[in-house]
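Reopening: DHA2 family efflux MFS transporter permease subunit still failing for me.
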Amino acid sequence: MSTAAATRRPSAVRPAAPAPIPGTVWRLAILIASGAFLSGLDSSVVAVGLDTMAVRLGTGLADAQWIATAYLLALGVALPAYGWAGRRFGSGRVWIGAMAAFTGASLLCALAPSLELLVAARVLQGLAAGLLIPAGQTVLGEAVGPERLGRVMATLGIFVTAGPALGPVVGGLVLDVAAWPWLFLLNLPVGVAALLAARRLVPRGAADPAQRADGPGLLLLVTGIPLVVLAATAAGEGRAPGEAAVLVPLLAGVAALVAFAAYAPWLRRRAAAGPGRARPALDLRLLAHPRFAAAAVTSALAGAVMVGGALVLPLYFQLGRGQDALQAGASMIALGAGSMIALPLVGRAIDRLGAGRVSAVGGVAVLLSTIPFGVLDLDAPWWLVQLLLVVRGVAIALALVPTMTAAYQAVDRPQLPDATALVNILQRLGGAVGGALLAIVLATGLPDGTEVAVHRTFWWLAVAAGLAALSAWWLLLVERRERVG
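Support: Ran it again with your exact input. Result attached.
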C-alpha cells in the first residue's frame, strides 16, 4: 500500500474524538461475535470432554486427542482460503455460509457413532470456524470504517475471550448432567438464531465472479500452515525436536510456505500481463506497508504470549497447586474476566488515542503481569494469584485488540479479506510455535522439580512478552512517523 493511501486517512491513526456508532452496527457486531464465541467455546468445551468421549466411543485417550487436533488443523487449512473466498463471494456471504456449515457440523458431531466419523465431522467444523473468524472481522471492518473500528473490535474481543474462558466450566457442567453429544448440541440454538438474524443484519459484501482461485498457491498454503501447526503440536506433546514426528512436518511445512513466498510475485506479474488470470491466494505485499507489518508481527508475538500463557497457567494450577482439570479451568476465569472488563474501555482508547499507543502500554503491562509468576511460590496466597490473573487479563486486552485493529486500519477496504486472513494466520502460527516452545521448556525442566520448571517456563514466557512489547513500541513509532509525515 502506498504512503499516499495511508495519509488519506490520518484519522485512522489518531482521531480527535470517537465517532458515534449506530445501533445497527452494534447489532451486527454482536451477531458476528456469536460466531467467534462458538468457535472459542467449542475448542475448550471439547478439551474437557475428551476422556469421556474416549470411554463412550471405545477408544484410548491418545486416539481421542484427534477430536481436538483435527479441529485445530482444519481451522489452519481454512484461513488461507478466505482471502480468495472473501473477494470472490463477498465477506458476508462467506460468513453466513460458514455459520451454516459450523452449525450443521455440530449436529453431525453429536450424532457421530464412532471416533472416525466424529473426527471427520470435527474437520468440517474446523474448516467452517477458520472462515468464520476472518470473514466476521472483514464484515465489521467494511461496515464501521477505521475511525470506529477499535470499539467494535473490542466488542468482538469480549466474545472471543469469553468462549475459551467459559468452555471448561460449561463442559464440566454439561458432562455432570448429560451425555457428551450435548457438548456439540449446545451450538445449535446459537447457530440457528444467528443464521436467522443474518438474513437481515449481515451485508453480503462485494462479490467478484471474475476472481479465479490460485490453485497452486492455495495448495502450498493449506499444506504448509497445518504442517507447521502439527509439528508444533507434536513438540508440545513431548516429542523431541529431532524426532521425525516433529522434524518432518516442520521442514515440509516451512518449505511449502517459502515456496509460496517465492511463487506469489511470479503469479502477480503473470496476472498483470493479462485479464482473467488468477492472483496470489494471499497478498504478501501488505507486509511492505510499515504499519501493517508492525501490527502483524506484534499480533503474531502477542499470539505466542497468549497461547503460551494459556498452556502454562493451567499446568501451574494442576502441577503446582494440585488441582484437577476442572478446578484449573475454574481458576482461569479471573483471566477472562479481566479481559472482558477492560475491553470496552480499550476500544474507546483505541479510537481516541490510536492503536499504537494502547498496544505499547499493553505490551509493557503483559510483561509486568508475567514476571511475578516467575518468582512466586507455588503455594502463594490464592487471592494474590487471582488478582494477578485479573491484571494479566486487562493487559492482554490492551495488547492484543489494538494490534489487530491497527492492521485493519492500515489497509484499504478491498484489501481487508487478505489482511484479515494474513493477520489470523500469523497469529495462529505464532501461538502454535510459542506454545510448543514453552511446553518443551516445561517438560525439560520437570526433572529439576515442579517449582523450578514452572518458574523457568514463566521466565521464558516473560522473554516472549518482552519481544511483543518491543514490537508494540515499533508499531507506535511507525504510527507517529505516519502522523508527522
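Residues 1-15 have pLDDT under 50 and may be disordered. If you still see a failure, please send the error message rather than a screenshot.
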